[in-house]
Specification:
Number of domains: 1
CATH architecture: Roll
Radius of gyration: 13 Å
Number of strands: 7
Shape: globular
Strand content: over 45%
Distance between the termini: 28 Å
CATH topology: Hypothetical upf0131 protein ytfp
Structural class: alpha+beta
CATH superfamily: Gamma-glutamyl cyclotransferase-like
Number of helices: 2
Strand order of the largest sheet: 1-5-2
Helix content: 10-25%
CATH class: Alpha Beta
Length: 106
């Protein structure tokens, strides 16, 4: 199993049902040294506003979210769901868990 940290749409039960065909169980956690930045993504019916995690110069910045257990196959489904505005990287969470998170694709 892999660990996946979500701070945005992946926390939605509706989105989880769309991607995984089930609702995930998660545990609250945080990423230190990151902040959220506004991001506009072109979708089928126009532009939509989202947020993306970006590294911060302030190591005390924190993003609250949820960490989920997912299989490798489920992680690949999330890769397809996320637009190319995001990239998946591994980070160490406040709890000490190593997890995947989607950050700005630069």
């Amino acid at each position: 199993m892999e660990k996946l940290f979500s701070y945005g749409t992946l926390r939605s039960k509706q989105i989880q049902m769309q991607i995984f065909n089930k609702v995930l169980n998660g545990t609250p956690d945080q990423i230190l040294g990151f902040k959220l930045k506004s991001l506009q993504i072109e979708e089928e019916f126009g532009m939509a506003d989202y947020v993306v995690a970006v590294p911060s110069e302030n190591l005390e910045d924190i993003i609250h979210g949820v960490v989920f257990d997912v299989s490798n196959a489920e992680l690949l489904k999330v890769d397809q769901f996320e637009s190319n505005s995001y990239k998946r990287v591994q980070v160490k969470l406040k709890s000490g868990i190593l997890a995947w998170v989607y950050t700005e694709n630069k």
